[in-house]
Design brief:
Helix content is 21%, strand content 30%. With 125 residues, the chain is α+β, with helices and mostly antiparallel strands. Strand 4, helix 2 and strand 5 (102-107) form a beta-alpha-beta unit.
Length: 125
């Protein structure tokens, strides 16, 4: 059994997918780019500001599910360029206090809307 998780506090899906799906106590959060939900445009600034907005979108979805970033067990970080890794990592670390989730970080050719970062997550109850 699965259920869709949706909140207006995170960007709406722009295609045939859901913000998140919960199945068997696991919450699979679609990749979040740094779109500001109230404006529909990318957060202003560089990799640090964009990473923060991506995480704020993730936090809003987790909140709707009754969870926090402490429930995240795996993330995948997509970067427009690996030279952005240090800036992303600096902000990333502020969203976790202990027991960091497993993580992959890769550079990709291009991200939607020209974003510098996209982060997808898996959380558990």
């Amino acid at each position: 059994m699965k259920s869709v998780i949706f909140t207006e506090k995170a960007p709406a899906a722009i295609g045939p997918y859901s913000q998140a799906i919960e199945a068997n106590g696991m919450v699979f959060i679609s990749g979040q780019i740094p779109v500001v939900p109230s404006t529909g445009v990318l957060a202003e600034g560089g990799i640090e500001e964009q990473t923060k907005q991506s995480f704020e979108n993730i936090k809003a979805i987790l909140e709707k599910a009754g969870l926090t970033t402490a429930n995240i067990v795996k993330t995948t970080v997509f970067l427009a360029d690996m030279s952005l890794f240090a800036g992303m990592n600096k902000v990333y670390a502020t969203y976790f206090t202990e027991d960091f989730p497993a993580r992959s970080a890769v550079a990709v050719k291009e991200l939607p809307k020209g974003a510098l970062v996209e982060i997808e997550s898996i959380a558990v109850r």
